[in-house]
Every structure is written in structure tokens, then in C-alpha cells.
TrEMBL record:
Occurrences of domain XdhC Rossmann (ranges): 210-348
Pfam family, one: XdhC_C
Protein name listed in UniProt: XdhC and CoxI family protein
XdhC- CoxI domain segment(s): 12-77
Top-level division of the source organism's lineage: Bacteria
Species of origin: Salinicoccus halodurans
InterPro entries found in the cross-reference section: MoCofactor_Util/Proc, XdhC_CoxI, XdhC_Rossmann_dom
């Protein structure tokens, strides 16, 4: 989502007319899942893939009509080999439905700005954020297909204005899956008029955050690889020179953390994973005691098992066994900072996504539940 929003911001600033393509439904096995997005330019270039390159060329052909008319549309693809007429013969054994929306800062500036604000708000939200987009409407003069608005994850309704009338929808937000389509009535405020709309509801998860406690040389590789995943990276250390080093220029946030007061400057809102790796026993002990009862998805400690057991036993607090991962990382036979960073990030993904980390060849059924 970070890369998508950054691309939207650039197109807004440069006044580029583009098409946003979003996967809104899948059947069987597909390269990308529901919610995946791509941006198509007028020259055929695109940012983000939806099918591994299988149908992007045809998607662009469909985008031409959207670029010309400004009207949203949704398209369908059968990616099975066994369909000689409509299939693409790519062997994905599935199908997908894609929504195409115009993003035009010149001719549809209000709509483009609204879309940019919605996804920017979703990106900045510490909790889950939901975006509702109209796919079909029985009164397109009042509510157009492609109309979107944002909802906080704990909302039970929303009011939005279109032209000269105000329509609202109300639904039990928690009753819906993260990605779903449904039909509902949009009503005027006095309830005298209604418009039936078919909608796509998508849940935008908070950007994963990685807090690295310890700004040593091996932390540089971990920070870089996390940034390659578009995570928000915070590096904290008790040594000013290490924090200010140009080696950590890629970090989103750098915090001097030498006492309890400094530790309070670290945010634990949202999806936060923590790796303790200062290589200093007393400093690691301080970090772990400060982390106690904080909100985090994952807590890993770098170092040998023997050292970490000794470290945990020395704490003035008691962590549940299942809350701490040590030695941090999956058993990949990793050696060197790059491989160790890979194993740690893989373990974080495993924990965040509640997966087994086993071989996919041993998994029965769909790869994505």
C-alpha cells in the first residue's frame, strides 16, 4: 500500500491521468489476491502487477476506454488452461475480477483528490481502515460506479455527499470479511429517496512496523531488507553516533534511547514487530524490561540460546514463553548479516500471518486461505 500511495501522490503532483486497477474477486489459484492494486499509465506502463504479467497487456487495452470516458468498469479473466476460447493458458487454475477506476487530477480533480485522501488516511491509520467503492448503481447521475469513501474499521455507518443531495449508508462493519461485495441501499438523510448500489469493501491493514533496538552493523541489513518490503522502520540505540550514522538513512525514524524517558518516544500503535539486537547484555535487559506489556506482534532476540535464557532469567518481569522468539529467525542455516536478516523477517511474517512456515509442497488446498 505504501508504494501505491506514493505513486498516487506523484501522479497528483504531476497531474498525470492514470487508471487504478484493483482485484476485487478471485476464483481458485491466482498470482495476486483480492485487494492487490496496479496503476496503468496512458503510454501502457504500469506499476504493480496483478497476474505476474499474464494479462497486464489486455488490462491496458481495457484501461483505454476508462482513460477516454472517465467511467469505471470491472472486467473478468479466466486464467485456466482448460478454456481454449476465453482462457489465457497460463496455468494459474483460477480467475479474477478487476475494477478499473480513473484517477484524473485535471478533468476529475475532486474525485482524484478524494481517492488520494482516502488511501493516504488508510496508510496513516494505526488500525485497520476500510474503503468502500461502488461497482454498480441504479442512479448513476447521483452515485457513479467508482465512487469511493473511507471508513474507520469500527464504524457502523458513514455519510457522504454527492451533487446536491446527501446519501448515507449504514451497515454492521464487523459482520463483513476483509474483502467482500454486497448490495445495499444508499438513503437520503430524511429517508425519502434511495439508490441501490453494489459495493466492494476492502480492508487496508496497517503498514507493518519494525522496531530495531540496537544500531549495530548487522542492524543495517535488517533495516534495508525491511524497507524493501515497504515496512515502516524505526531504529533505536543508546549511542548518538550510531543513531545519526548515514548507514541508517533508509530508516523512517531514528530514536535515541538511553533511558526510560527516551523509551516513551517510541510508538507501539498498530502492527509492531520488535527485534532486540544491541549486543550488550545490560542494554538488552533494559529494552526487554521497557517492552513488557507494550503492544507488539512479534518480539525476537538476537543471540545464542544460552545467552538469551540468562538474559530472560535476569529480568524483573516475566514474559510468557510464547511471547518471545529466540534465537530470532527461522532455521534456514543462515550465515552472515544478509541471510540472518532474511530468516528474521521470514519468522516475523510467519508470526504476523499465523502461518506454519512449512514447505508449500506439503500444504493441501489453496496457498492463500
Amino acid at each position: 500500500m505504501l508504494a501505491f500511495v506514493e505513486e498516487l501522490k506523484k501522479n497528483w503532483a504531476n497531474r498525470n491521468k492514470v487508471v487504478i486497477a484493483t482485484v476485487i474477486n478471485t476464483i481458485g489459484s491466482t498470482y495476486r489476491q483480492v485487494g492487490a492494486k496496479s496503476i496503468f499509465y496512458e503510454n501502457g506502463r504500469f506499476e504493480g502487477v496483478l497476474s505476474g504479467g499474464c494479462v497486464e497487456g489486455d488490462i491496458f487495452e481495457q484501461c483505454k476506454a476508462v482513460l477516454e470516458t472517465g467511467e469505471a468498469r470491472h472486467i473478468y479473466y479466466n486464467l485456466q488452461d482448460d478454456d481454449p476460447i476465453f482462457g489465457f493458458g497460463v496455468g494459474c487454475d483460477g480467475g479474477m475480477e478487476i475494477l478499473l477506476q480513473i484517477f484524473d487530477p485535471i478533468n476529475h480533480s475532486e474525485t482524484a483528490k478524494k481517492l488520494l485522501n482516502i488511501y493516504s488516511n488508510a496508510l496513516e491509520s494505526k488500525g485497520s481502515y476500510r474503503v468502500l467503492t461502488v461497482l454498480e448503481s441504479d442512479n448513476t447521475s447521483k452515485i457513479n460506479p467508482g465512487t469511493s469513501w473511507g471508513l474507520q474499521a469500527d464504524s457502523v455507518g458513514n455519510v457522504f455527499k454527492n451533487h446536491d443531495e446527501s446519501y448515507y449508508i449504514t451497515f454492521d462493519d464487523v459482520a463483513y470479511d476483509d474483502f467482500t461485495q454486497f448490495t445495499i441501499n444508499a438513503l437520503t438523510e430524511n429517508g425519502s429517496k434511495k439508490i441501490e448500489i453494489n459495493c466492494f469493501l476492502e480492508t487496508v491493514k496497517p503498514i507493518p512496523q519494525l522496531l530495531i533496538l540496537g544500531a549495530g552493523h548487522d542492524a543495517v541489513t535488517l533495516a534495508k531488507q525491511a524497507k524493501n518490503l515497504n515496512w515502516f522502520v524505526t531504529v533505536a540505540d543508546y549511542r548518538t553516533a550510531h543513531i545519526e550514522s548515514e548507514m541508517f538513512d533508509m530508516a523512517d525514524e531514528r530514536i535515541l534511547c538511553s533511558n526510560e524517558k527516551h523509551f516513551k518516544n517510541i510508538s507501539f500503535e498498530g502492527d509492531v514487530s520488535v527485534v532486540v539486537m544491541s549486543h550488550n547484555f545490560e542494554r538488552d535487559k533494559f529494552y526487554l524490561e521497557q517492552l513488557y506489556l507494550k503492544n507488539f506482534t512479534y518480539l525476537g532476540i538476537l543471540g545464542s540460546r544460552k545467552r538469551t535464557i540468562k538474559l530472560i532469567e535476569s529480568l524483573n518481569v516475566t514474559y510468557p514463553e510464547e511471547k518471545v522468539y529466540y534465537p530470532a529467525g527461522l532455521d534456514l542455516g543462515s550465515e552472515g548479516p544478509e541471510e540472518i536478516a532474511l530468516s528474521i523477517l521470514a519468522e516475523i511474517l510467519k508470526v504476523k500471518n499465523n502461518r506454519t512456515g512449512n514447505f508449500l509442497v506439503q500444504k493441501t488446498g489453496l496457498i492463500h486461505e
